[in-house]
Design goal:
354 residues, alpha+beta, 6-stranded antiparallel sheet, 3-stranded antiparallel sheet, 14% strand, globular, binds adenosine-5'-diphosphate, binds 2-acetamido-2-deoxy-1-O-phosphono-alpha-D-glucopyranose, binds magnesium ion
Length: 354
């Protein structure tokens, strides 16, 4: 089945005319579809290797977006376009597809250059956490179990090194040493969650900056998107992942590490926006761990990129050889920068939460 036919399954009394690859996500295949009658929508082929239970995935997204639409009717949210057979997704021999309303006049930022954009995105992701604060987490199916369980990520990583299916271990000894020497990071948040000292909340879990849409002209918040991983988690996962993605002075796969620097001013802007929204909601334990969460999420993501490189690049989309290794090195450079700046980051968070 070709993509024109697939797209037409989401269009009543209309047909797809042109299909353009869209965005720069690492997981799903995203297309902008224009129809004969002048309609536009977003088509995504869901990555079924990663999201094995598409039915539960789409039910989660339907529940969350319907909840936001009902409780916050003035807010823009992601909206599923059902198939002409009134289903949440289309199942074909070539895979699973879904439609989303295209959010007009929007932009998503891959590399942040203006600290004010970080402030705005902090507010946006903070508001998202608040909007779902009373959503019943039990309704959600975990789409990727142990997604941010850094301890289990570490176990997977060690197993991958042991198997060394692509004989790549000898090519990244230094990076492997970087990961193993920081094993102590892995348990900090997960043990606070397990002991009940830190609450589970409904979190987004993939808060990279290009997963929020801003108005192209005013850069005001339009909507948080990419809701595949909304599940119970820690606020530290959301805060830390935005810091990882947004405070990098270079692209996530930049090879020249002299260009990769952690931008502490961007950290402060994001923290200000996020905490303006959430500080009255968060516990002291959560607030005390926010600065560290930037390190943890960057370390974890680097470890995931390195694991994927060792496995032969089967998880994250790649467009060139060694891209996952470059991504891992890039993340580890940021971790090293943040380790030096941790006291300043902690002091800043404490000062704005006084
Ligand atoms: P992935 O899981 O592969 O990251 P996303 O759902 O994040 O896929 O979509 C990829 C990109 O497509 C986003 O970063 C954003 O630029 C764009 N995008 C996604 N959904 C919409 C939408 N409803 N309206 C406009 N742009 C969108
Ligand atoms: C993926 O889907 P996307 O591109 O927004 C990944 C995140 C990583 C990120 C690294 C479901 O995010 O966990 O942090 O790449 N999403 C999934 O860029 O694994
Ligand atoms: Mg995305």
């Amino acid at each position: 089945m070709d993509e024109i036919l697939i797209s037409s399954c989401f269009l009543k009394n209309d047909h797809a005319k042109e299909i353009i690859p869209y965005g720069s996500g690492h997981i799903n295949k995203t297309y902008l579809v224009n129809s004969v009658r002048g309609n536009t929508f977003l088509l995504q082929q869901i990555n079924n290797n990663i999201f094995t239970d598409v039915d539960s995935l789409m039910r989660n997204i339907d529940l969350i977006t319907s909840y936001i639409k009902c409780h916050y009717p003035t807010k823009t949210t992601l909206e599923i376009i059902k198939t002409i057979e009134n289903k949440l997704y289309l199942s074909t021999n070539d895979g699973y597809y879904r439609g989303y309303k295209f959010i007009n006049n929007s932009t998503s930022i891959d590399i942040v250059t203006d600290p004010n954009d970080m402030y705005i995105c902090g507010k946006g992701f903070g508001e998202f956490l608040l909007m779902l604060a009373d959503f019943d987490a039990k309704l959600l199916k975990e789409t990727i179990p142990n997604f941010h369980n850094t301890e289990s990520r570490f176990t997977d990583f060690m197993l991958t090194c042991k198997k060394d299916v692509k004989n790549r271990v000898s090519l990244c000894k230094e990076e492997i040493e970087f990961v193993t020497s920081r094993k102590k990071y892995c348990s900090r948040i997960i043990s606070l969650l397990n002991s009940g000292e830190m609450p589970y909340r409904v979190t987004h879990n993939d808060t990279k900056i290009n997963n929020i849409l801003l108005d192209k002209d005013t850069h005001e918040i339009l909507s948080v998107i990419d809701l595949d991983t909304v599940m119970p988690g820690s606020v530290c996962y959301d805060f830390g992942d935005s810091i990882r993605a947004g405070c990098n002075s270079a692209a996530e796969d930049e090879k020249d590490l002299s260009k990769v620097n952690f931008m502490i001013e961007f950290f402060k802007s994001y923290a200000r926006g996020y905490l303006e929204q959430t500080k009255n909601k968060l516990t002291k334990t959560e607030i005390d761990n926010l600065a560290f969460s930037g390190i943890l999420m960057t370390y974890e993501c680097g470890m995931r990129f390195l694991t994927d490189y060792l496995n032969g690049d089967t998880y994250f989309k790649t467009t060139r050889p060694n891209q996952n290794l470059d991504r891992a090195r890039n993340q580890f450079k940021l971790v090293s920068d943040m380790e030096k700046l941790l006291p300043e980051m902690e002091e800043y968070i404490a000062s704005i939460c006084k």
